[in-house]
Amino acid sequence: MKKKSMGTSKPSKRQAEILQFVSKFQREKGYSPSLGEIANSFGVSIPTVHQHISYLRKKNLLSTDKGKKRSIQAFNDQKRDLVEIPLMGLVAAGGPIEAIRNPEPIEVPRSMLLRGANYYALKIAGTSMIEEGISDGDIVIVREQQTVDDGEKAVAYLPDKDTVTLKKIYRDKKRIKLVPANKYMKPFYETNVEIQGKVVGVLRKEI
Fold it and tell me: How confident is the model over 183-207, as pLDDT tens digits?
């Protein structure tokens, strides 16, 4: 899988893990971790940690004071703060979901999420939602909820077909209209639809 583009300040996976460790350490203990404590936690050398810390400082994700111990400080900038959610599987925008047995956590900006809600991610296969800016290979961020407003993008389970799909949802009397965002694909109707979540964000694959 290609790395997702979230701006020039996006850290690498290991750097994001170190940043998260520093933030959690600060919250729980009230002071910053040492290079040695970070190295022990990740099973790497102190020079390796120092290199990651340098990159994070250059990306304005944390600060350090030379010559001072325990001076590593993660910035409490919500736009830069990353949160892990599970990547649950592959959803064809018009086909069955391919579940991942061991969901791999991915980092997403905290600003995409609301407190008190559960979120997961799905990788998109297909082009039925391209006019909504969702392309093949992108990852969508989904908030778990059982209802959406007309016109909103939702992950829907169709029990009669035993498939999961991503479509725009509209209510039409006793039926549900599922609309792709692709002029070459036609909407279709279902009477038995279970909404599994609302799409709240997209992480686009790099071209």
Answer: 999 999 999 999 999 999 888 765 4
The CATH 1.10.10.10 domain(s) of the chain lie at: 13-74
Using one digit for the tens of pLDDT, what is the confidence trace for 70-119? 778 776 543 346 788 888 877 765 554 555 556 778 888 777 788 788 99
The CATH number, out of the four listed (1.10.3720.10, 1.20.1600.10, 3.40.50.80, 1.10.10.10), of the domain defined by the range 13-74:
1.10.10.10
Q: Is 79 a catalytic residue?
A: no
Helix (H) or strand (E) holding 15: helix 13-29
Going by the DSSP 8-state scheme, the letter that residue 20 receives in this structure is H
Calpha distance 139→56 (Å, rounded): 25
Of 4, 123, 153, 167, the active-site residue reads 167
> What does DSSP assign to residue 5?
P
| Range 82-203: architecture per CATH | Ribbon (2.10)
Task: State yes or no: is 71 an active-site residue.
Answer: no
What confidence score (pLDDT) does residue 9 get? Answer: 54
* Confidence at residue 6, expressed as pLDDT on a 0 to 100 scale: 40
CA dist 27 and 34 (Å) reads 15
Joined together, the tokens standing for residue 158 give 């169709």
The catalytically annotated residue of 128, 153, 168, 198 is 128
